[in-house]
Design a protein that fits this description.
Radius of gyration: 18 Å
Number of domains: 1
Strand content: under 5%
Shape: elongated
Mean pLDDT: 83
Largest sheet: none
Number of strands: 0
Helix content: over 70%
Length: 210
């Protein structure tokens, strides 16, 4: 268990989770591509990713902050148990509604401040920050969590930028056959993390995760 959740492994997992988060078209890059096509400018694609990334950072940060406050101000076994079942139940909820995700009614002709709001709402309802729960529970201070949060967002932004550029450059038709149901995979991932946390809680009783 120590090897599985070593610092280096935590950083790698956080980056991979961010990259997977960024692959999902519903998280922003497809919106940026549409804006770039609509305004006939590749620069708009990268400009749009800035407020989208800011919204993602705030949305994930909200969930991470709530978990961190609970981690350091409440008994660890209570927080561990609560997070385990919250993540599991939220995963089951998303599994039952995997065909739906946050919808924006403002259309594509939006300003950058609206993109921040849209991205914040999409990210917070998606629950990306919940997947850092095992690391938050294992942390000894906020400074243990901050680097994981940063690399998670960096992995997401880098992935969105690369995928968005490729789709804009070569057209969505060339990638249509490679689109998978990310919402279904995300729901299963949440369920898996919830189950793992429950099992870890049962094995370690009321102590810390080591």
């Amino acid at each position: 268990m120590d090897h599985m959740i070593s610092h280096d492994n935590q950083m790698i997992v956080a980056i991979l989770l961010g990259a997977f988060h960024g692959l999902n078209p519903a998280m922003g890059w497809l919106f940026a591509v549409f804006l770039a096509i609509q305004r006939n400018s590749q620069r708009v694609l990268f400009y749009a990713l800035i407020p989208i990334s800011a919204g993602q950072l705030l949305g994930d940060g909200l969930l991470i902050t709530i978990q961190t406050i609970a981690r350091f101000h409440l008994p660890i076994h209570i927080v561990h148990t609560a997070l385990s079942f919250i993540i599991l139940l939220y995963g089951l909820y998303r599994l039952l509604r995997y065909y739906r995700h946050f919808k924006w009614s403002g259309g594509l002709n939006v300003g950058y401040l609206q993109l921040v709001l849209w991205s914040f709402l999409a990210s917070s309802t998606h629950g990306s920050g919940l997947l850092l729960a095992p690391f938050i529970l294992n942390a000894h201070s906020f400074m243990d969590i901050l680097p994981l949060w940063i690399v998670h967002e960096m992995g997401m932004v880098a992935t969105m930028a690369v995928i968005g550029f490729l789709v804009y450059r070569f057209g969505i038709a060339k990638f249509r056959n490679y689109i998978v149901n990310f919402e279904l995979i995300w729901a299963i991932l949440l369920i898996g993390v919830g189950i793992i946390l429950i099992l870890m809680n049962g094995q370690m009783g009321h102590g810390h995760i080591h």
